[in-house]
Amino acid sequence: MFTLLAAGASGASTLIFIVLLLAIFYFFMIRPQQKQQKQMEEFRNSLSKGDKVTTVGGIHGKIVGIKENTFQIEIARDIVIEVEKTAINYRPAASGAKKAQSKDDDRKPEEPETTVPMDDDSNPNID
Fold first, then answer.
1. Is the distance from CB of 91 to CB of 99 less than 8 angstroms?
2. Domain range 48-95, its CATH number among 1.25.40, 3.30.70, 2.40.128, 2.30.30
3. Distance (Å, whole) CA 119 – CA 45
4. Does this model's pTM top 0.70?
5. Taking Cα atoms as reference points, which of 58, 57, 38, 35 lies closest to residue 46?
6. Average pLDDT by stretches of 10, the chain with 127 residues
7. Which of 3, 33, 37, 83 is exposed most, by the fewest CB atoms within 10 A?
8. Residue of 45, 43, 52 whose CA lies nearest to 75
9. Could you tell me the residue ranges of all domains in the chain?
10. Is the distance from CB of 64 to CB of 81 less than 8 angstroms?
11. How many CA atoms within 13 Å lie on the side-chain side of 120?
């Protein structure tokens, strides 16, 4: 009878461990990914003609047309490509915006080390 109780407790603790593990996966992996996908979908739906965008392939351009599942992007004068909406990665930052400088940028640049040429006679490793 004792072995039956021990087996029952062991099975319950295993079940609790599995449920706990699934909850951890959900809250730390699945839910944040779903949230990020929803934000990207909202971002892509908010785009309109004239917006500058960058594709996942690194192509920069301006939206000149919108279809159901695609954007028409002008990448150069009179050169228009059509890409899937899911291929739009982000809006590039405004070119006039000044980037914030980090504390490392305020440092004085280091002077390069100067090297003194050695005579062949002074190097003991050369035969």
1. no
2. 2.30.30
3. 70
4. no
5. 38
6. 53 90 91 91 90 91 93 93 90 54 52 57 58
7. 3
8. 52
9. 8-46, 48-95
10. no
11. 2
